[in-house]
C-alpha cells in the first residue's frame, strides 16, 4: 500500500472516530433502564429507555445518541438505532431503542448497554470531578428457564425525572409492574460504568444525603436520610442540603416462589434546586383488598399550601391493555391544573381475570405550577409528591361445602360436594383441606387461603369446574369415628399461563377459604371434664377427676388408666388408677377420687389413657389431653385488701366467663360464703382483690374489715366449657384448693438467689453427636435463701419455693413447680426435665406460712450451644455414598438457617432454608454443577432464650467431586 493511500485511510478513520466521539460526547445521559418482553419461544423484545439532558444553551433532542450497542451475555455488540423521541419536561427527552433477540438456550442472561457520556458536575460521583468523562452503563438480568416457564422483566411506568428542592422531602417510585405476577423487591445499587465487553464496574459513589454535610430532614431532624423501601420501591431523600445534580441507582428484583429470577437496574439523576415554593401534598391512601367483581371508586386528593395550581396524574399496569386484561382502570380529574386543591376519581371494574397474588400498585403524582400573579415565575421550580394505591384482588369464597359418608374399598371415606364456582378461570384448581376436629379460623380479606398454623393439610386438587371430591385418604381410608373438618380454597394460575406449566399455580393468587364443614361424629375417646379440689391438706388432700364415656358399643371390655403428675404443667406422670369397664350406661366408671395428696402446696396434672379390645386383647387406643387442678395464689400484699390470683391448664375454655370467689365466714369456721362473681377476659390467668365487701347477696351478705396480720381463707370455682354440643355437661365447674393468706406481714419472705448449671460448649463442640441420642434435656436449678437483705431480716418460716419458667426472656414466666419436702428440711434444688432444648429463663420465689410470696429471685437465662458442623467434600455421583451435602451428625437446636453456595467467581449457584441443607450438587434450577471447589455461607439461627435469636454465620468451602 502506498504512503498516500495509507495516509488517506488514516485520515478517514480519524474523521469517523472524531465524529463518533463528538456525537457520543453530546449525549449527556441522565437516566435509563433495560426491559425485556417475550415474543415467542426464546425470542424477546429488548427495550432501552434512555433519558437525555437537553438543557440550554444549544442542546436539542438530536444531540442524543442515534444508536446504541447492546450486549447479550458475551454476545455483542449489536447496534440498535434510536426509535421514539419525545420531550418529557425538565429539559429532558425520552429516547427509546428497541430490538429483538433470540437467546440460544434456556439460561440466565445479562443484557447491557454502554453510552457516552454522563453529565458534568454530578456531585456524588467521582467526587464531582470530570463526571462527563464517565460513561453510562446499565444492565438487566433475564432468567430463561423451563422450570420457571415464561418470564419477562417488570416495566417501570414512572419516568425518573422530577425536581427536588433544598430542604424538602423528595420521593420517587418507579411504579414497577410485572405482567407475570411475580413478586418485586427493591434495593440500592452503585452506579456503574462500562469496563468493556458488556461488563460494568462501580463508580466512586456517595449517597446523596452525604453531600454538603449531615443536613436535616424536612421536619428538622438530624441528619438527612436517604432510603429505599424494599417492598414498595419508595425512594425517599429527606432532605437535600446542596443544590446540584446527583445520580443514584437501584435494582428491581423479580422473585417467584422464593427464587430470584431476574432484575433490572435503573440509574437515574436527581436535580436539586433552590425552590421558592413548597411541594404539594397528597392525601394518604389505604391499601385495598377486594373480591374479584368489585367496582372500585376511590377519590384521590392533593393540596398546595402556597396556592399553586396542581396537575394530578396516575400511572400503573391497570391502565394498559397488554399488561392486564380488560376492563381497564380509568382516572378522571375534572379541574386539572386550575386550582390549588385537586381531586381525581380512580375507577376500576375488577373481574375474575384480575385475580393474582401480588397487589396492583397504582401511582398518583401531583405537580405544582405557578399561580397567576406569582412574582418572578421564571424562578419557580415545579415540585411533586406521589403516593401509591395498593390493590389486592382475590378470588371469591367457595360456597355450599358439605360432606356425606361414602362407600369405598379403602374403608372410611367421605364424598364432598360444593356449589359451582363463580370464577371459572382456565387452569384454576380447587384445593381441598382437611383437619381433625372443628375450629374457627380468623377471617381477613387481606389474608387469603388457609392461615399458617391452623392445622389444615391439603388432601386433593380438582379443576375449578368440578364440584365434588372423594376423600379416602389417598386410598388408605380415614380414621373411623373422627370428626373431620373440611375447607376449600381456589388457586389461580399466574397471568399469561394456563395452569399446566411448571410452577404456574405458584404466585397466581387464591380465594378466601370457604366456610368450614364439620363432620360431627360420635366421640370415640373419653374427655376429661373435671379436676376439682374437694379437700385442702398437706397429707389428706382430695381431688375428684371426671370424664365422659366414649361413643362405643357396650359389652366389650375396655379400660381407663388414669395418670397424675405434680405441678400444673408436670410431665412426670405415674399411674394412679386402672378402671375396667364394659361401657354400660350408668356404671360409675367415669369418676375417680384421688386421695392422700398435698393439695395445700401442690397443683396436680392428670391424663387418661383409653384401652379397647382388639382381637381379644386390650390395646391402647389413645390418650386425652392433660388437665390440671385450679391453683389459687396470693397476689401482692396490701394493708387493707387481699389480692388473689388463680389459673388452670386445661383442654376446655375457662376464659370469657364468670368465675366464683368464696371467703370463709370466721363466725362459722369451715363455711365458705360466696362473695363475688368475677367476669374474666381471654387470658387464662385470673385475679380478684377483696376489700372486705360481700358482692354476692344470694347466700347472705357477710362483710368484713380487712386488717393487718389477720388471716383470710379463700377458694375459687372456675366456670368453663368445651364449646362442643357433643360434650355434656356443657358448663364445667371446678374448685381450687383453699388458700389462707394475710393482708400484710411484718416480716416477708425474701427473694432467693438462683443459679443454673452452665453448659460447657467447648467440650460439647468436640463431640458434635453429644445430643443426637437425647430425646429430652434437663436443666438443674439450685438456690439459697438469705437471712437478711439490705439490713432487714427475712422471714425464716418459709414453707415452700415456687419455680417459674419462660421459654423466652421477654415472656412472663409461669409457675412450673412448688418445691417442699415435709417434714424434712426444705429442698433448694429442682430439675426441670423433659425439655426439647436447654434454652429458657427461670426465677424462684419463697412462700411463708401465710401464703405470702416473695418478690422474684434474680432471673437466670440459659442458651443452647451453637453446634453445626459441615463436611468439606461430597460426591454427588449417584452411587448413594456421600451424594448429599449435609451437616455432620444431628444439627442440634437449629431454629432456621439460610444456606448459600458460590462458585469461585462469586456467583451464587444454590441456596436453601432446609435445616439439613440436603444439597445434591445441583443449582436451584436443577442443573448439575461442575466438579470443583465451592464456597458456602450459612447463617444459622439457634434456639435460644430470645424469640429472635442472634444469627451465627459460618463460612467455608467444600470440594464437589463427581
UniProtKB/TrEMBL annotation:
InterPro entries xref list: Ig-like_fold (IPR013783), T9SS_type_B (IPR026341)
Gene3D superfamilies, per the entry: 2.60.40.4070, Immunoglobulins
Name of the protein: Gliding motility-associated C-terminal domain-containing protein
Pfam families (UniProt xref): CHU_C
Amino acid at each position: 500500500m502506498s504512503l498516500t493511500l495509507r495516509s488517506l485511510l488514516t485520515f478517514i478513520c480519524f474523521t469517523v472516530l472524531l465524529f463518533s466521539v463528538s456525537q457520543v460526547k453530546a449525549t449527556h445521559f441522565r437516566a435509563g433502564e433495560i426491559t425485556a418482553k417475550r415474543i415467542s419461544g426464546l425470542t424477546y423484545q429488548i427495550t432501552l429507555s434512555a433519558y437525555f439532558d437537553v438543557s440550554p444553551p444549544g442542546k436539542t433532542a438530536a444531540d442524543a445518541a442515534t444508536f446504541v450497542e447492546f450486549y447479550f451475555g458475551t454476545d455483542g455488540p449489536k447496534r440498535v438505532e434510536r426509535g421514539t423521541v419525545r420531550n418529557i419536561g425538565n429539559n429532558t427527552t425520552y429516547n427509546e431503542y428497541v430490538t429483538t433477540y433470540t437467546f440460544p438456550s434456556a439460561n440466565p442472561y445479562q443484557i447491557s448497554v454502554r453510552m457516552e457520556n454522563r453529565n458534568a458536575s454530578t456531585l456524588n460521583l467521582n467526587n464531582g470531578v470530570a463526571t462527563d468523562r464517565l460513561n453510562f452503563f446499565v444492565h438487566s438480568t433475564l432468567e430463561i428457564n423451563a422450570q420457571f416457564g415464561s418470564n419477562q422483566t417488570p416495566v417501570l411506568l414512572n419516568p425518573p425525572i422530577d425536581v427536588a428542592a433544598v430542604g424538602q422531602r423528595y420521593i420517587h417510585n418507579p411504579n414497577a409492574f410485572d405482567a407475570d405476577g411475580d413478586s418485586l423487591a427493591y434495593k440500592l445499587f452503585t452506579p456503574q460504568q462500562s469496563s468493556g465487553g458488556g461488563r460494568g464496574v462501580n463508580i466512586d459513589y456517595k449517597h446523596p444525603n452525604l453531600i454538603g454535610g449531615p443536613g436535616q430532614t424536612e421536619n428538622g431532624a438530624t441528619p438527612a436520610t436517604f432510603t429505599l423501601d424494599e417492598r414498595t420501591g419508595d425512594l425517599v431523600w429527606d432532605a437535600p442540603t446542596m443544590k446540584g445534580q446527583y445520580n443514584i441507582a437501584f435494582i428491581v428484583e423479580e422473585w417467584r416462589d422464593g427464587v430470584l429470577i431476574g432484575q433490572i437496574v435503573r440509574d437515574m439523576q436527581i436535580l436539586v434546586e433552590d425552590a421558592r415554593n413548597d411541594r404539594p401534598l397528597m392525601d394518604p391512601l389505604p391499601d385495598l383488598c377486594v373480591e374479584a367483581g368489585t367496582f372500585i371508586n376511590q377519590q384521590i386528593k392533593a393540596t398546595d399550601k402556597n396556592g399553586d395550581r396542581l396537575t394530578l396524574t396516575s400511572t400503573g399496569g391497570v391502565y394498559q391493555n397488554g399488561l392486564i386484561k380488560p376492563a381497564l382502570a380509568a382516572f378522571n380529574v375534572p379541574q386539572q391544573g386550575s386550582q390549588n386543591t385537586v381531586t381525581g376519581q380512580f375507577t376500576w371494574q375488577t373481574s375474575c381475570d384480575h385475580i393474582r397474588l401480588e397487589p396492583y400498585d397504582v401511582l398518583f403524582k401531583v405537580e405544582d405550577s405557578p399561580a397567576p400573579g406569582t412574582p418572578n415565575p421564571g424562578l419557580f421550580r415545579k415540585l411533586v409528591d406521589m403516593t401509591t394505591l395498593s390493590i389486592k384482588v382475590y378470588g371469591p369464597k367457595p360456597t355450599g361445602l358439605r360432606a356425606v359418608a361414602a362407600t369405598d374399598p379403602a374403608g372410611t371415606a367421605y364424598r364432598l360436594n360444593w356449589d359451582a364456582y363463580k370464577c371459572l378461570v382456565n387452569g384454576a384448581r380447587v384445593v381441598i383441606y382437611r383437619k381433625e376436629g372443628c375450629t374457627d379460623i380468623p377471617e381477613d380479606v387481606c389474608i387469603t387461603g388457609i392461615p399458617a398454623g391452623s392445622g389444615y393439610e391439603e388432601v386433593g386438587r380438582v379443576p375449578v369446574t368440578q364440584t365434588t371430591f372423594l376423600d379416602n385418604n389417598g386410598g388408605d381410608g380415614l380414621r373411623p369415628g373422627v370428626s373431620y373438618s373440611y375447607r376449600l380454597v381456589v388457586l389461580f394460575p399466574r397471568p399469561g399461563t394456563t395452569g399446566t406449566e411448571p410452577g404456574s399455580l405458584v404466585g397466581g393468587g387464591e380465594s378466601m377459604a370457604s366456610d368450614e364443614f364439620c363432620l360431627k361424629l360420635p366421640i370415640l375417646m373419653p374427655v376429661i371434664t373435671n379436676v376439682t379440689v374437694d379437700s385442702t391438706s398437706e397429707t389428706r388432700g382430695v381431688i375428684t377427676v371426671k370424664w365422659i364415656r366414649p361413643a362405643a358399643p357396650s359389652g366389650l371390655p375396655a379400660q381407663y388408666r388414669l395418670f397424675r403428675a405434680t405441678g400444673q404443667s408436670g410431665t412426670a406422670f405415674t399411674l394412679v388408677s386402672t378402671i375396667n369397664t364394659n361401657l354400660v350406661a350408668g356404671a360409675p366408671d367415669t369418676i375417680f377420687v384421688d386421695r392422700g395428696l398435698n393439695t395445700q402446696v401442690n397443683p396436680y396434672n392428670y391424663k387418661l389413657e383409653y384401652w379397647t379390645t382388639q382381637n381379644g386383647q386390650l390395646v391402647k387406643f389413645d390418650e386425652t389431653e392433660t388437665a390440671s387442678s385450679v391453683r389459687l395464689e396470693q397476689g401482692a400484699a396490701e394493708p387493707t385488701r387481699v389480692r388473689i390470683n388463680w389459673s388452670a391448664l386445661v383442654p376446655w375454655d375457662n376464659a370469657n366467663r364468670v368465675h366464683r370467689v368464696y371467703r370463709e365466714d370466721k363466725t362459722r369456721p369451715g363455711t365458705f360464703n360466696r362473695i363475688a362473681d368475677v367476669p374474666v377476659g381471654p387470658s387464662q390467668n385470673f385475679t380478684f382483690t377483696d376489700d372486705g365487701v360481700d358482692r354476692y347477696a344470694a347466700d347472705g351478705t357477710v362483710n368484713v374489715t380487712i386488717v393487718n396480720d389477720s388471716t383470710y381463707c379463700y377458694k375459687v370455682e372456675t366456670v368453663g366449657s368445651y364449646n362442643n354440643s357433643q360434650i355434656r355437661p356443657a358448663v364445667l365447674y371446678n374448685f381450687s384448693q383453699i388458700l389462707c393468706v394475710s393482708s400484710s406481714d411484718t416480716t416477708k419472705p425474701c427473694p432467693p438467689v438462683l443459679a443454673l448449671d452452665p453448659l460447657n460448649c467447648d467440650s460439647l463442640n468436640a463431640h458434635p453427636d453429644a445430643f443426637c441420642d437425647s430425646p429430652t434435656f434437663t436443666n438443674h436449678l439450685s438456690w439459697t435463701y438469705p437471712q437478711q437483705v439490705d439490713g432487714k431480716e427475712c422471714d425464716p418460716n418459709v414453707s415452700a419455693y415456687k419455680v417459674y419458667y419462660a421459654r423466652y426472656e421477654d415472656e412472663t414466666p409461669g409457675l412450673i413447680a412448688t418445691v417442699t419436702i415435709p417434714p424434712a428440711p426444705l429442698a433448694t434444688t429442682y430439675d426441670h426435665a423433659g425439655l426439647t432444648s436447654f434454652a429458657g429463663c427461670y426465677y424462684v420465689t419463697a412462700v411463708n406460712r401465710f401464703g405470702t410470696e416473695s418478690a422474684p429471685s434474680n432471673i437466670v437465662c440459659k442458651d443452647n450451644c451453637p453446634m453445626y458442623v459441615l463436611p468439606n467434600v461430597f460426591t454427588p455421583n449417584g452411587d448413594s455414598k456421600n451424594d448429599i451435602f449435609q451437616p455432620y451428625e444431628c444439627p442440634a437446636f437449629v431454629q432456621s438457617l439460610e444456606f448459600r453456595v458460590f462458585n469461585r467467581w462469586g456467583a451464587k449457584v444454590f441456596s436453601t432454608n432446609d435445616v439439613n441443607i440436603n444439597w445434591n450438587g445441583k443449582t436451584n434450577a436443577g442443573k448439575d454443577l461442575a466438579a470443583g471447589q465451592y464456597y458456602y455461607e450459612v447463617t444459622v439461627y439457634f434456639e435460644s432464650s430470645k424469640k429472635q435469636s442472634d444469627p451465627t454465620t459460618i463460612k467455608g468451602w467444600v470440594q464437589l467431586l463427581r
